[in-house]
Amino acid sequence: MATKDRISPRNHSEIDTIPFASAEEAWFWFVQGMQARNEGARFTQGQGLYPRPCEPIDIMKVVDRLYRKRRLVMDHLLVLRHYGKRMVPPDRFRAKEMRAHKIWHEALGRIEAVLVSKNIVHLPATFFLENTK
């Protein structure tokens, strides 16, 4: 068998990946991935329905680094975990979830800044219409 006939797996950089639209989407994906891993699933790079620019552990590393730098505190982590497992963000109109809503958005804002810099999250461009006369 000639060398050029061998099939080798594509590098992660060669795979066209689909970045997340927001940190919230990335967080819910991360929570599902970690739950699947805890239930015995094995991860294979590039084998998901949508090829993503990272693995779930990469998001865990970002959160861990922010926690160690004290950009995230335990309240952030508890809210992220609780609502991540529920797969819904806190509702700002429910009295019991108003504080959690504030903490949720504060935490995801800090996470999103890092994920955007790593090209894991791609925020859509904002368009402004000019006042034309």
Structural features, described:
The chain has 133 residues and is mostly helical. It has a domain at 23-39 and 52-117. Helix content is 47%, strand content 0%. It has four helices and no strands. It has helices at residues 23-38, 56-68, 74-86, 98-117. Helix 1 packs across helix 3 (74-86) and helix 3 (74-86) crosses helix 4 (98-117). It is globular.
What is this structure, in a nutshell?
The protein has 133 residues and is mostly helical. The protein has 4 helices and no strands.
Q: What are the salient characteristics of this protein?
A:
single chain; 133 residues; mainly alpha; 4 helices; 47% helix
Task: Report the biggest beta sheet as strand number plus sense, adding barrel if it closes.
Answer: none
Number of strands: 0
- Assign the structural class, choosing from mainly alpha, mainly beta, alpha/beta, alpha+beta, or little secondary structure: mainly alpha
In which range does the helix fraction lie? 40-55%
Describe the SSE topology.
Elements: H1 23-38, H2 56-68, H3 74-86, H4 98-117
Helix pairs in contact: 1-2, 1-3, 2-4, 3-4
